[in-house]
Amino acid sequence: MKINQFLQYLRYERNLSPLTVKAYGDDLHQLADFLTHGKAEFHHSSVTPSDLRAWMVSLSGQGDGARTVRRKMQAARAFYKWLLKIGEVAQNPAADIELAKLPHRLPQFVREEGLDRLLDAPLPDDADFVEVRNRLIVAILYGTGIRRAELIGLLDRNVDTVQCQMKVHGKRDKDRIVPFGGELKRLIDRYRGLRAEVQKAGVGELLLTEKGKPMYPSLVYKVVHDSLDEAGVKGKKSPHVLRHSFASAMLNHGAEINSVKEILGHESLAATQIYTHITFSELKTNYKLAHPRALKKGG
Q1: Which of 66, 85, 104 delimits the end of a domain?
Q2: pLDDT (tens digit, 9 = 90+) per residue, 163-205?
Q3: Residues 157 and 197 placed together within one structural domain of the fold
Q4: Which partner from 82, 154, 200, 275 sits 20 to 30 angstroms from 145, CA to CA?
Q5: Is 167 annotated in the active site?
Q6: Rounded mean pLDDT of 138-155?
Q7: How many angstroms separate the CA atoms of 210 and 136, rounded?
Q8: Which of 2, 11, 169, 171 is labelled catalytic?
């Protein structure tokens, strides 16, 4: 059904990450199962907008939310656009299907005092490899704003504790240099002393499991979630929330927005500007809590 060929195109021509490509594949194979059900023969040129709308109804009926249905239809739209480009279909049946508009959601973030409570707590002198590594994971995510996939792929040789900077391999195979501070430098140096005891031959990633192998997404998520939970942090607890928290903290403390954009690896300023809405929301909250006129009833 050309799906695998399309996924190769996304990975190697569009330079999308393996996780993004996998998400496209999962959605498109689900679509293929729906379209081919009960049919002896099938070709994409026979697919109509009505077929795709029926798929949307089916997705909603099985419990998929509006955001998930929208994402899956966007995958279908991209797939048929590619089929049109290579001459497999005469038109894109998904092109004119209107997608439901979603409510605008501001990114969630952890308040600075919650992260300070976690990161300022001293590690015991005899802290083991896992304890130091877990603290380092949270410290890097909050201290640099890098993505979970970038953290997992971070190579030990690309982390320079002399210059206090790291080379991060980001989306679309783009590298960037991200600075970090002295506190993080000291934690990395401490971790490296323990890392040498578990590292397996040929493994170059900075962050390792207890068995000396590279970290994986679900383990990073668990480390972050459990660490924030133990510190009493409320709300959503995930690696991406720490990325949002980094951006919010930088802007709250006067960082220039273009500098934050470059550190985060955003391609457009618009992606970074959403954090200015967070900081303004925080400003309004602080105003209402602190200003004497705002404290009056009806204020």
Answers
A1: 85
A2: 999 999 998 889 999 999 999 999 999 999 999 999 998 999 9
A3: yes
A4: 200
A5: no
A6: 96
A7: 14
A8: 171
Structural tokens at position 296: 């009056």
Q: Which residues contact 285 (CB under 8 A, 6 or more apart)?
A: none
What's the pLDDT score for residue 299?
A: 44
Residue 264 lies in a domain: yes
pTM over 0.85: no
- Cβ atoms 231, 117 nearer than 8 A: yes
Q: For residues 125 and 25, state if they share a domain.
A: no
Tell me which of 72, 195, 243, 261 is the catalytic residue: 243
> Per the residue annotation, which of 29, 70, 192, 240 is the catalytic one?
240
Q: Which of 24, 80, 191, 275 is catalytic?
A: 275
Per the residue annotation, which of 77, 133, 147, 195 is the catalytic one?
Answer: 147
Query: Is 275 labeled as catalytic in the residue annotation?
Result: yes
On whether both 177 and 279 belong to a single domain, the answer is yes
Mean pLDDT of the residues in the chain: 89
Query: How confident is the model over 81-109, as a mean pLDDT?
Result: 85
The token pair that represents 99 in the structure block = 């997608």
Q: Does 96 map to a domain? A: no
Q: Is residue 183 part of a domain?
A: yes
One domain for residues 256 and 220? yes
Q: Are residues 56 and 194 in the same domain?
A: no
Q: Say which DSSP state 39 is in.
A: -
Active-site annotation holds for 243: yes
Catalytic, 240? Answer: yes
Q: Can you give the pLDDT at residue 289?
A: 62
Q: Catalytic: 213? A: no
Domain that holds residue 209: 112-290
**Domain shared by 158 and 256, yes or no:** yes
* DSSP three-state, residue 208: strand
Residues paired with 219 in a beta bridge: none
Whether residue 117 lies in the annotated active site: no
Whether the CB-CB separation of 36 and 28 falls below 8 Å is answered with no
pLDDT at 227: 95
- Quick one: pLDDT at residue 291? 57
SS3 1: coil
